[in-house]
Amino acid sequence: MNELILASITGIDKPGLTSKITNLLARYDIRILDIGQSVIHNQLNLGVLLDVPSKSASYEMIKEVFLKAQILGLTIRFQPITEEEYGVWVTEQAKSRYIVTLLGRTITAQHIAKVSGVIEHHRLNIDIIERLSGRASLNEATEGQRACVEFLVSGDLEDALGLRSAFMNITHDFEIDIAFQADSMYRRNRRLVVFDMDSTLIKIEVIDELAKARGVGNEVVAITESAMRGEIDFNSSFAKRLSLLNGLEEAKVKMIGDSLPLTDGAERLISTLKKLGYKTAIVSGGFSYFGNILQQKLGIDYVFANELEIVNGVVTGAVKGTIVDGKRKAEVLKELAAKEQISLEQVIAVGDGANDLPMISLAGLGIAFNAKPIVRQTAKQAISTLGLDGILYLIGVRDRDIV
């Protein structure tokens, strides 16, 4: 009669340990039902669930493997598993699975305790914890660090809204971000990233800078902030702001375009996305004049934005063509997905303002980046503590993958 045995092996890691142990197991015609291995600071943790052909074979196998482990400087523990226990384990593979991503400049035990406490409260089980960020130097300044830990959890989630609310409370109390998403086949199979431009891909609101150059900065900033908070209609606010730019010289427009400040992590993010085969797009309520500059600088594939009308070297202040508002952003996202022949689940949308919410809500992964409160509260994912390249962690990219 077959015996089921869980072998748990720990010790200082070195090359060849797994090979030596499994070569011994191979002598007994053992079937491997499950295996998992991790190394933390050179400490090996190896677990193997064994299906041993007979009781006598299990006795000889245990004796030989135990002696070999001692010679190799390893500690090994054998635990019998009943068929009933194994059956329960098999049925659990049908449980829903989720990914919780914890991001910040540094991660503390308190952060892990808070996040794992919420997971436990909602009766989910942590299956795997993995660090995605690189190894941190003890001497590196905290503000220059990136820290990310990923939890793979499973179980039947009954109150998704309550879980997200609990995570949001933690991010409010600590300088960390927490993302929660289903662990589906799309998670590592996104193909298109759509960016808002102003205050997302770049650090500024271009229309505010144009307004300062025209001498109407305060008036335009007040309208911009009200629109981004969702207090007034975007189209009418855009027309009002644009009209105030009437008479601005093209030379000043060019000066602003030549010095667009990229958001921290933007170049690293987009260069990595290009290497991974992603398509990228700017879909902005700003101006294509500046979107085209970024397209050339970063290698963006598509640009959809408003046209800044310039006649005889002067901005006219008139609205030209269809305004790219929130509704239009969502339409463009769907059009691009269709053109690339991908599903909406394979699209990532990133923005900071209320007019970005339609496309953020439509995308498979919608991210509020350094967003206004209304956007952060509405979007399923938010990043505020790291640069734009923090998005790479949400699609499962490790720092070492990039290096």
Write the layout of secondary structure elements.
Elements (H helix, E strand, L loop, with lengths): L2 E10 L4 H10 L4 E10 L2 E10 L2 H17 L3 E7 L1 H9 L5 E8 L4 H13 L3 E7 L15 E8 L5 H14 L2 E7 L9 E4 L10 H9 L2 H12 L5 H10 L6 H8 L8 H10 L3 E9 H11 L3 E5 L3 E2 L2 E2 L10 H14 L7 E5 L5 H6 L2 E5 L3 H6 L2 E3 L7 H4 L4 H4 L1
Walk me through the structure:
The protein is α/β, with parallel strands linked by helices. The chain folds into 3 domains: 3-91, 2-Layer Sandwich (Alpha-Beta Plaits); 95-182, ACT domain (Alpha-Beta Plaits, 2-Layer Sandwich), CATH 3.30.70; 192-402, Rossmann fold, CATH 3.40.50. Helices cover 39% and strands 25% of the residues. It contains 16 helices and 16 strands. It has helices spanning 17-26, 55-71, 83-91, 109-121, 160-173, 206-214, 217-228, 234-243, 250-257, 266-275, 288-298, 326-339, 357-362, 373-378, 391-394, 399-402, and strands at 3-12, 31-40, 43-52, 75-81, 97-104, 125-131, 147-154, 176-182, 192-195, 279-287, 302-306, 310-311, 314-315, 347-351, 365-369, 381-383. It has a 6-stranded parallel β-sheet with strand order 11-10-9-14-15-16, with helices on both faces. The chain has a 4-stranded antiparallel β-sheet with strand order 2-3-1-4. Strand 2 (31-40) and strand 3 (43-52) form a beta hairpin. The longest helix is centred in the first third of the chain and has 17 residues, at 55-71. The radius of gyration is 27 Å and the shape is elongated.
